[in-house]
Amino acid sequence: MIPAAFSNFLVASTQASAALIGLLFVSVSIAPERVFGRQAEAGRQALALSAFTALANVFFVSFSGLIPNLSFGVFVVVAGTVAASQTLALLALLPSWRRDRTLFRSLGLFAVSAAIYGYEIATGVRLIFTSTDTGALTGLLGLLLGGYSIGLARAWELLGAPHSRGPISGFWGWLRSRFGAPHADTSALEPPHHTVSEPEDRTGR
């Protein structure tokens, strides 16, 4: 049984994750062919899958913590394993990440997601043996906040929002330039050069 001190967080997390999943469904339903159609981009499918996996994981972990007489640790291990397997499936999109020039950014978010779900599984194993371990529970709630950040970041990109210009985006840009990612052709950005012709001599000389 989860200590009562954690109940308020779990209730709020359940409600918030359920609302965000509903908004994700609404955003996808506006133009479902862009995500699930035959001509849909693999990158958009990955964003939708990653966002749903993160938010669904947060929802089920939070909701299960409110069920009395449930082995919470076992449920955390199961939820983390499912989320980790869904995340590993994204590696099949490596060719499209290279083609879209988003390899380093996608691998970075993949690594963060895998680390969160891996640590979640380890925490669940710990809770199986000591369900009232407040240190493990506090760490798990911190992981849920990390799941929110992953889900919201992926959903933000799914909507087509531009990437931020902060230090993280700058770091990915440095990696792309450092490892020889192709640069855009800047010749089109240069102003056109106009030649000034001499006036025609009409005096017959």
Give the end-to-end Cα distance, rounded to a whole number of Å: 106 Å
Q: What class, by secondary structure content? A: mainly alpha
The global form is globular
Question: Measured on Cα atoms, how large is the radius of gyration?
Answer: 25 Å
| Secondary-structure element order, N to C | HHHHHHHH
Averaging pLDDT over every residue, what do you get? 76
| Poorly predicted segments | 165-172, 180-191
- Sheet bearing the most strands, described? none
Strand content: under 5%
Helix content: 55-70%
* Number of distinct beta strands: 0
| Number of structural units classed as domains | 1
Q: Give the helix tally.
A: 8
Multimerization state: single chain
Could you characterize the architecture of this molecule?
The chain is mostly helical. The protein has one domain (4-179). Helix content is 67%, strand content 0%. The chain has helices at residues 7-30, 33-36, 42-64, 72-88, 94-99, 103-129, 134-158, 167-178. The radius of gyration is 25 Å and the shape is globular.
